[in-house]
Amino acid sequence: MEATVVETGTEGKTWGGGHRPLKASYGKMMMWFFIVSDSLTFSGFLAAYGFSRFKFIDSWPIADEVFTHFPFLHGVEAPMYYVAFMTFVLIFSSVTMVLAVDAGHKMQKGKVTLYMFLTILGGIIFIGSQAWEWKTFIKGDYGAVETKGGNILQFLNTEGERVALADFATKLPGAIQSQSESEGIWFETGTSAPTYTFEEVKTGFMANENLLVRTGYLNEHGVPTVLSREESIDKLTNEGLMVVEGANLRHNEYGPPLFADFFFFITGFHGFHVFTGILINIIIFFNVILGTYERRGSYEMVEKVGLYWHFVDLVWVFVFTFFYLV
Amino acid sequence: MAHDNHKLAIFRGAWTFKSNQSKIWGVFIVLSIITIIEVVLGIIRPEFLTDNTFLAMRLLNWVFILLTIVKAYYITWDFMHMRDELPGLRRAVVWTAVFLIAYLVLILLIEGDYIYEVYNNGYIKFDF
């Protein structure tokens, strides 16, 4: 569609407009501008994560011990395998995207359709995996005790294996229990109670001689410190405050609350980008099927949405490094 | 517009492809190998990399960051076709982002380390 064109009479002169010194179309330039500003947003988040991590450098959780699950392999320790799988899915969907752009340059409508479809499929698999990752993270693993100072105490047996709260907490009579609306005359919903109270965990801990406490503080090898039995009892009775199971924005059983906050915020913001990327890809996909770009004589729109999709992949490469590896 | 005149050499010309499609698959293989190295290192955590530090950071973390930047280079240069753009556009995008991000990260990490020192030296009691 031709927009109204205003002639200035200075075309052809150096400062008269109409020059394209960067040899890139308007739409592509604007996509690059957007990508630069969005990458600054993401680096702001990741730098804030680095700031908080340096602030708690000696008590930050080790990602290997937090993300150890793989779907359908319950109870198998699989550190980072699932995140590696997610990374491959996203890189591969980037490959199919760039193949679609390449086919678009050659005006091959059928190939563009196929590769766009595969790209959308990869995006959906990735975002589904991220939802599963969130679910596992929120549900938690072993459970822990939070101290008055906001630190996390985890439990080990003498062989150095993690022990879940359910394995040793003793049920005490008269402990809190969850009620539902059908049981009361006057009912207000509150936060859901943890499965065990702090008193129950403490009693169970005292009764089991072979249990030890592990603090979040890392020793000189970068491994969390394990206390002796006496130190453990002392720490738990004097500083223990509440039971934490899983993760939310205020408490998490893995370490400082900021760890979970940044996890939700950064992977959530990235997941939102993947989600919008899938939506834009679907719109372009239908335009390809309808032959819009065939009639226009150029598949440049595929290239522009491709830039965005690769950017999402690029961000994930950094999130993967700083959340799961470093 | 960079129609059908892609630059087909990577690794500074050491590896030249016959077509743009085979270049895409070549870059995919490079990215996959780097990711596999990262994951294997992340699981094994070799002791000489975790126990030695450079500029107050473990060597392993430097390796991860370096490999990430290599990956970012190939995604930007080959998947986003930065290799085929004019130097002006490339510099406007890459230099702006790199300098601003490097400055932001440097200043925030120094500040975070300072706050850790303040906590650690006992001026503020935060673990009670």
From TrEMBL, chain A:
It is found in: Cell membrane. SUPFAM superfamilies: Cytochrome c oxidase subunit III-like. The keyword Cytoplasm does not apply. GO terms for cellular component: plasma membrane. Residues 1-326 form the Heme-copper oxidase subunit III family profile domain. Keywords: Cell membrane, Membrane, Transmembrane, Transmembrane helix. Belongs to the cytochrome c oxidase subunit 3 family. This is Cytochrome oxidase subunit III. One of its GO terms (biological process) is aerobic electron transport chain. PROSITE patterns: COX3. The keyword Transmembrane applies. The chain crosses the membrane at residues 30-51, 80-100, 112-132, 262-293, 305-325. It comes from Marixanthomonas spongiae. It is a multi-pass membrane protein. GO terms for molecular function: cytochrome-c oxidase activity.
TrEMBL record, chain B:
InterPro entries: Cyt_c_oxidase_su4_prok. GO terms for cellular component: plasma membrane. It is found in: Cell membrane. Keywords: Cell membrane, Membrane, Transmembrane, Transmembrane helix. It comes from the Bacteria. Coiled coil: none annotated. Its main location: membrane. The chain crosses the membrane at residues 24-44, 59-80, 92-110. The keyword Disulfide bond does not apply. It is a multi-pass membrane protein. This is Cytochrome C oxidase subunit IV. The lineage of its organism: Bacteria, Pseudomonadati, Bacteroidota, Flavobacteriia, Flavobacteriales.
